Structures are given as C-alpha cells and as structure tokens.
Amino acid sequence: MPLVLNHISSELRAACQQFIESGGHTTQSFGFGQVIGQIYALLYLSPRPMCLDEIAEELAVSKASVSTCVRQLELWAAVKHVWVKGDRRDFYEAETDFKAVLRHSFLATIRKKLDTAAVRIDNVNASLEKALANGDDNQRKEARVIAERLQRAREFHRKISALLNNPLIEHLL
Prior knowledge:
Layout (H helix, E strand, L loop, with lengths): L9 H20 L4 H12 L4 E2 H8 L3 H13 L3 E4 L8 E4 L3 H37 L2 H28 L2 H6 L1
Antiparallel strand pairs: 1-3, 2-3
C-alpha cells in the first residue's frame, strides 16, 4: 500500500511536509519533542488512518519513537485508535477539532505543571521559614529578600492558575 504522501503531486507533498515540519517545531517549542507534533500533523492531513509502520516510514523515525508519541497523543485525545477491517495492525487517526486537542492536551498539561510548581513553591517556602527561624541576621536579611521574591512567584502562579481555570477559557475552547 503506498504511503499517504507518496501518491500526491510533488507540490502538494512539499506543502504537506512543510505543515508536518511546522507541527514538529511547534510541539518542540513547547517542550514536547518534535516527533509528537510531526505525527499529529501527518495524521491530521491523512485522508485515512495510518498504522505505526506507515507513520514511522513516512517520517523516517523509529517505530518505537512513533509508538511512544502515539500513546502520549492518545492520552491527550489528539489521536484515536481505529479498527481497519481485515488488518490486525493498530491504526490511528487524528482528532481534527483543534479546540478539543487544546482542551485535553495543552491546557491539561499546563495545569498539571502549574500544580507541580505550586507544590515546589510550598516546599521552598517551608525551607525558607526554617532558614528564617534558625539563621543569623545576615541570613535572615537574605532570606527576607528570597521570601519577597517567592511571594511574587506565588502571586504570579495564582494569577496564571486563575486564568487557565477560568470557565471562559473552557467555553472558548
């Protein structure tokens, strides 16, 4: 079976490859890795579901890498496993509703990272309180500066969390 992009004109193939590369650059810029974005973009453009072997061959990456990325994309509801009659391989297709993908992947991931950051800020604050109680005057002076900056970080965190948890964001997406 010819790969998805092999049967189209060279001009259309170049445009598709550009889109796929852009998808990779976008996810990489958010710290998710390039391949995950390339896989999503490839499946998004594909008129039919693709199996792991086809995705790996199309993108010239390992099947193991594709498998790992597809699992992450499934967790984000960006791709779904589909059944293809007469074939026992696992096939996938992209969720084409960008709002749904953003709601389940980007926002959920950022919220999770913010929760982790909140725990870390609290841990630093607890350590700082001990330093303030046990330190000499110079250490207390430095600890107060750190405490002030930590408070600003906590306030920024609170504002970002409030923004991302605003029902309007959910409504817009």
